[in-house]
Amino acid sequence: MRTSQYFLPTLKETPADAVVISHQLMLRAGMIRKLASGLYSWLPAGKRVLNKVENIVREEMDRSGALETTMPVSQPAEIWQESGRWVEYGPELLRFQDRHNRDFVMGPTHEEVITDIVRNDISSYKQLPLNMYQIQTKFRDERRPRFGVMRSREFLMKDAYSFHIEAESLVNEYQNMHDTYCRIFDRLGLDYRPVEADNGSIGGTGSQEFHVLADSGEDDIVFSDSSDYAANMEKAEALAPADNRPAPSEEMTRVPTPNAKTIAELVEQHGLPIEKTVKTLIVKASEECEADLVALMVRGDHELNEIKAEHLPEVAAPLEMAAEEEIRAVMGAGCGSLGPVGMTIPCIVDRTVAKMADFGAGANSDGEHFFGVNWERDATYTREADIRNVVEGDPSPCGNGKLFIKRGIEVGHIFQLGKKYSEAMNATVLNQSGKDAALFMGCYGIGVTRVVASAIEQNHDDRGIIWPDAIAPFQIALVPLKMEKSEVVRKTSEKLYAELTAAGYDVLMDDRKASPGVKFADMELVGIPHRIVISDRSLSEGNVEYKHRRGGDAETFPVDSIVAELKQKVTI
Amino acid sequence: MRTSQYFLPTLKETPADAVVISHQLMLRAGMIRKLASGLYSWLPAGKRVLNKVENIVREEMDRSGALETTMPVSQPAEIWQESGRWVEYGPELLRFQDRHNRDFVMGPTHEEVITDIVRNDISSYKQLPLNMYQIQTKFRDERRPRFGVMRSREFLMKDAYSFHIEAESLVNEYQNMHDTYCRIFDRLGLDYRPVEADNGSIGGTGSQEFHVLADSGEDDIVFSDSSDYAANMEKAEALAPADNRPAPSEEMTRVPTPNAKTIAELVEQHGLPIEKTVKTLIVKASEECEADLVALMVRGDHELNEIKAEHLPEVAAPLEMAAEEEIRAVMGAGCGSLGPVGMTIPCIVDRTVAKMADFGAGANSDGEHFFGVNWERDATYTREADIRNVVEGDPSPCGNGKLFIKRGIEVGHIFQLGKKYSEAMNATVLNQSGKDAALFMGCYGIGVTRVVASAIEQNHDDRGIIWPDAIAPFQIALVPLKMEKSEVVRKTSEKLYAELTAAGYDVLMDDRKASPGVKFADMELVGIPHRIVISDRSLSEGNVEYKHRRGGDAETFPVDSIVAELKQKVTI
Questions:
Q1: Share of chain B above pLDDT 70, in %
Q2: A266 to chain B nearest CA, in Å?
Q3: A36/chain B closest Cα distance in angstroms
Q4: Which of A9, A158, A485, A512 has the fewest C-beta atoms under 10 angstroms from its C-beta?
């Protein structure tokens, strides 16, 4: 491709409303343009990258044995009513009516459609297992779309759904998808990690997220420094401290703390070490709990893990904090002064809290705390549980090493769904015994659009994008200098362009009448990994100049050897 | 691929609601399944075909120099209001609101979006010409979706849009697209014709449709038997008869015709040759016409061409027939008794009618006709024009030969739009003189989904589909007989499968435990063009059996030479 015949509207300035790097650079490099909030058009350079990601995903999914399909974007309400999600799914599910006033949704995902296909066309276990996927436009009506294509309303997703008569077959396919995802992200050239994830309300046994590591990532990923253990923050287990609880060594005293509404204020004003404090949070109880509210306690410097908390049988899901008035009615005090002494509602403490002694906590009386509280002697709890986020330095739940935390961008998710949809939608087949059996189901997603943005978040510098070879819009930038004035520059450039294109490379030749500075800046902004500069000066010695986008010194190579040289350097 | 691991739910029976062949066969061959009215899921075998069509379209569009993009399916109402189509477009435009009650449409086409991109990012003629395309899901809320994917609500379309500073550049790109489309349909292996089409209300100079010829086609395509001339029925010009009008030879007589409400009844009851009759149709006049109604006359055996009629400056567009009461008020008689004698409103006659003498027509008095009517002596007309459909045997407007008519399925359309959108949406750039100039625009569509259905309409027999090699889901069917019982059949089949797959062919090996009859029927229904049967019987002589789906006798080839033989026979 020649820049003179290409549409590459690069921008010098960073658009004001673009906050994250990938959004800024995709706009500046002429990859995308905003049509409306959360809706983006992909311009030619962006579309090239998207196609390359899509092709890698397709090739590896095909290799895995999954079968490609395409299901409609528009889906009738009836199947969503059957699955229960017509009601359960929030306003992110875009509902609309057709000209005959029939209800439809724009599909954010396709469990219902694929389950409908399978229940109609699969009647026997002999036709299973089966894994079908599509690479297709999805719509989620985000309340606040942001970060460009990272959290847009329309996006391209690869979603796969597998069906099985036996749980073991689902586990095998789940592993097959895990391995397939690893091959995909390896080929994409990204630094990524599969991490254990929470199964949500579905239960079941397996759920993993695939994260591209980047400092700008939205999610905290937890790793062991001595093993392969990796989990997302929601899932990572905080172990109980190994040591026994110390014996009490202080008397419990009631302390006036009128200006300490928070743990930080308590610590600052009263000289209490934060590790000697506990926080009490009051949440709504589940229906099966005999009380209306439940108290949750974590150490003052720890954070409640809401996902872990909402999995407790005593706690309502989704987690809902109690309102100030409710708390006051039951506890006799407001949020800043709560604690375990004299507690009348179920009280679930974090494993760490259960091992604490001589600690400070609210006195359930406004403006007062108890110091020197000790379990059993002064207060009791209902039971202990893991309800906090891990922190760096915690022992790894795998038993090896300590935990550390990095930021990640979720680009894939594999999930053992179990029978949720097959039971709701009555998707059964005859099993080996000739009886109707609901199917086991797995689902496996990759955010194709998001992969592009995450690749940029992970690979950029202050001059622009630095693409991995496999998904670069062009692998090679040919930059002739003053081509219009120099016949030898023109001829050499055209010859190299023809040879490299014939060799199967995607080459962008910058044949504009523009200064070297303008050309270099654009090629760097767009992120083309390999650059060849052809100038009178170097050609006078029979050479051209090569430079990788990641930096390092420019190297000179004889014109005659540069194609062979590039075949060594560039992976396609 | 092996049938045992594939999802190919073939059906023996034709589903009741499938009327056209392609719909029936796509359902029976397990290519598609209906999700809701006009919404279809593509199962693996169908998706393979769709992907192959898409890839050919993409390769040839890329080769043409057009640049691939992707624009959102969802489009904000504002740009449709700017172009005027928010109001103009009927209920086929699906309008919806997002969670913030903002208006959107599901894109049936993307002129507004691309024009918005271009006006924002193209500022100078130096960046032109430019042609951008996408292959993307479209939505049209058809009142009565039917014929399977032939007229569905969601479908895949390749739409391209070109922008130019000069009309000549648009004409060049239009020709480039014409040539590109010919390459595409050649590669698809379809019998097709580019035909001249009407430009509609846009005016401008160029519009061509690409039709796949099939007896079941919805459209009439008009050809010359002695030249390359081809046009759709709307566009094909009906020339004036070469001969002069004969002199009157009969007296005009008033005839009671109480039971002749139609031309057919008039001819039957009164023995008048149909070529001696005229039909009078009363339509609404345009605003610029001084009258409210206009009379249009065609010979009794001819049909009014509504498109030609609505292009008349005197006639309202879109064409609207006058109501019976309006007609009676102005003409003094109802529809079955209208004619030119005593006509008080503008009267436009077809060129053929203008050359008629001694003809019969309604007397503008209920239950009466005049016979022996002659122009000038008995009645006058305002002017003559081409307002009828051509019929077989008419002279070709190209000047060579006579016309004949075939049926076609429209699968592509190329169109010189001119400045319609650029002027409505203020898409201007600086021209060579440094002045703002509205852009010339062309648009070029291919119904990718429809191509698949049209290929079946053109290529099938009573046993199923017969795919062209280039778009067959599998080019080669390997049918081992009693594989489970014969080691040599199994080994030979596996070896051939491996070799043919390695050679780049898409091979479906039917490894089911099923009778030869069941296997042959399925492979024929699915339409795989090349079939190899591996059986103990033929292997005992060292042979396998080859047969093409189109028929002819089965041929035997030595096992060792069959791969080389297929390389001759199969095009990929």
A1: 99
A2: 43
A3: 7
A4: A485
Q: Beta strand pairing status for B440-447 and B460-461?
A: unpaired
Q: What pLDDT is recorded for position B205?
A: 62
Among partner residues B41, B74, B127, which is closest to A71 by beta-carbon distance? B41
Amino acid, single-letter form, for residue B186:
D
At A203 the pLDDT is 52
CB contact under 8 A, B35 and A71: yes
Distance (Å) from the C-alpha of residue B152 to the closest C-alpha of chain A?
A: 11
- List % helix, strand, coil for chain A (3-state, nearest 5): 30, 30, 40
C-alpha to C-alpha distance for B403 and B394, rounded to whole angstroms: 5
Beta pairing partners, A476: A507, A530
Q: Using a CB-CB distance cutoff of 8 angstroms, which residues of chain A are in contact with residue B42?
A: 69-71
Q: Where residue A198 falls among pLDDT bands split at 50, 70, 90?
A: confident
Rounded to whole angstroms, the Cα distance separating B210 from B226 reads 20
Size of interface A-B (CB pairs under 8 A): 142
Interface probe, candidates A11, A35, A144, chain B, greatest B C-beta count within 10 A: A35
Determine the 3-state secondary structure of A206 from DSSP: coil
Burial label for A219, CB within 10 Å (0-12, 13-18, 19+), is: middle
Verdict on whether the full-model pTM lies above 0.90: yes
The string of DSSP letters for A15-74 reads PTT--SHHHHHHHHTTSEEEEETTEEEE-HHHHHHHHHHHHHHHHHHHHHT-EE-B--SE
Shortest CA distance from A110: residue in chain B: B41
Q: What's residue B321's pLDDT?
A: 95
Q: How far apart are CA B422 and CA B437, in angstroms?
A: 9
As a whole number of angstroms, the distance between CA A234 and CA A221 comes to 9
Task: Enumerate the residues of chain A whose CB falls inside 8 A of the CB of residue B164.
Answer: none
User: In this complex, which of B35, B98, B121 lies closest to A33 when CB atoms are compared?
Assistant: B121
For the stretch B331-342, pLDDT in tens is: 999 998 999 999
Interchain proximity A96–B96, CB inside 8 Å: yes
Is a pLDDT exceeding 70 seen at residue B5? yes
Per-residue confidence (pLDDT) for residue B357, from 0 to 100? 97
The pLDDT-based confidence of A571 (bands split at 50, 70, 90) is confident
**Residue listed under structure tokens 């081509």:** A483
What are the tokens at B127?
Answer: 């960046």
What distance in Å separates the CA atoms of residue A477 and residue A124, rounded to the nearest whole number?
55
Element (H, E) at A263: helix A263-270
Q: What is the DSSP letter of A471?
A: G
Antiparallel, parallel or unpaired: β B67-68 and B130-139: parallel
**pLDDT of the residue at A206:** 87
Say how far residue B81 (Cα) sits from the centre of its chain: 28
Checking ipTM against 0.90, whether it exceeds it is yes
Report the alpha-carbon distance of residue A444 to residue A453 in Å, rounded: 20
CB-based contact B141 A50, cutoff 8 Å: no
Is B319 in contact with B310 (CB distance < 8 Å)? yes
The pair of three-digit structure tokens given for residue A191, joined into one six-digit string: 């630094």
What is the spatial distance between Cα B130 and Cα B112, in angstroms, rounded to a whole number?
16
Chain A residues touching B137 at Cβ < 8 A = 73, 136-137
**3 state DSSP class of B400:** coil
The DSSP code sequence of B303-338 is -B-HHHHHTSTTB-SS--BPPHHHHHHHHSS-GGG-
Select from A561, A528, A562, A535 the least CA-distant residue to A546. A562
Instruction: Answer whether the bond into residue B318 is a cis peptide, omega within 30°.
Output: yes
pLDDT digits (tens, 9 = 90+) for B415-430: 999 999 999 999 999 9
β partners of residue B75: B105
Is residue B200's pLDDT more than 80? no
